[in-house]
Amino acid sequence: MKRLLQCRTRADMRQLVKVCMALLFLFIIFNIYKRWSKSHDGRHIVLWYNPPFYVTSRTDAFVRNFDECPQANCRLTFDQSEAESSKAIIFDGRQMTKDCKSFSRPQDQMWVFWGNEPPTKYNEAGDEWMDFAKEFNLTMTYHRESDVYMPYGEIVPTMPIPQKDFLSIAQKKNHSVVWIASSCHTSSWREMYVKELRKYVDVDIFGRCSDAMTPWNCGNRWKHDDCFSVLNDYKFYLAFENSLCEDYITEKFFENYNYDIIIVTRGGTKSNFKDILPDGVYIDAMDFQNPKELGGHLKQFLNDDKKYANLLERKSAYTSLPYHIVYQKSLCNLCDRIMYPEVYNVARYDNLRDTLHEINFCKHPSDLERKHQR
Ligand SMILES: *[C@@H]1O[C@H](CO)[C@@H](O)[C@H](O)[C@H]1NC(C)=O
Ligand SMILES: *[C@@H]1O[C@H](CO)[C@@H](O)[C@H](O)[C@H]1NC(C)=O
Q1: What b/e readout covers 28-40, taking b as 16+ CB neighbours within 10 angstroms?
Q2: Which residues cross the membrane (predicted)?
Q3: Do residues 205 and 179 make contact, with C-beta atoms less than 8 angstroms apart?
Q4: pTM, whole model, 2 decimals?
Q5: Residue 134 CA: which ligand is closest?
Q6: Which residue among 72, 325, 332, 362 is the one 20 to 30 A from 199 at the CA level?
């Protein structure tokens, strides 16, 4: 009996092994097919090789692939194993390391230098990326001269213009100026600028640059949610950039624009933001000699609700587009260039460093006295 049972088990085992082998075989075939069909659906594969947190955390934009582009024959992937079958690869340029060349690049593959940081930060993580400087065909950054312009946001006319009681909004506000920041040693010296400004107007500071140095744990760094509604209690928000670089205007402006608040920018090179943003809907610290002058200007509005309400009303004629729309536009533009490289004269960059305006387009602050300079 016992022996019989043993025999049975052995026979069953053999049967089982056969079934398993068959299943494994089918599984392998299925996966090969899946990979094959993925790369043979006729669309150009665009691989984002090392997407930064800034991109992956913004699922609102991310999940959309190229779906909203009218004629885009492209498919976005983040799967590095598709590198050799990709028509184009997007790299977070300054984060590139030797590992980025672990596959063999087809001759007609286009490399895209993506970057959302200003040139002042390109070498922060080392200069290994420079080894690839002659490998790129396209640039995709916030700078308007990039092949593919990918700004942090966009301000467009509001349709229709909302009818709001701006005077009562102004009257309800019980705070003056707010600054939220976590990076407190910057090449724009914004931390020193704010310190000076506080001599002339009340500035509440949240985040690690506050007096208590408590991190701002409310909401998401990129996508501002309900907890930023504290902004509605304030009259002005300081959207001060960490570097004064041409066209470098970030989510600090675009994500906060739609609150009932007036944004004060400090960034770009002198009057540079006037080329990007509509006139009269924000205040530009770069228009003032120093923090004292800006403080004086803000005071006029802090002491006059009617005057401040006018500013809000003027601002309401414009809206900040949701990020996913801005992102989509850039992706569609990219796909166009990948589909028709001849039309767009896609070539190879010989001197990427100059193209990225690494040296020329950032300025030292000139609105602080020498004694503040480190
Ligand atoms: C004034 O500020 C406090 C927070 O400091 C807030 O709770 C309150 O709702 C604000 N608004 C009014 C009208 O008091
Ligand atoms: C892109 O750059 C590579 C590497 O420099 C080059 O070999 C290739 O011809 C370029 N592609 C186009 C379309 O110009």
Answers
A1: eeeeeeeeeeebe
A2: 16-33
A3: yes
A4: 0.85
A5: 2
A6: 362
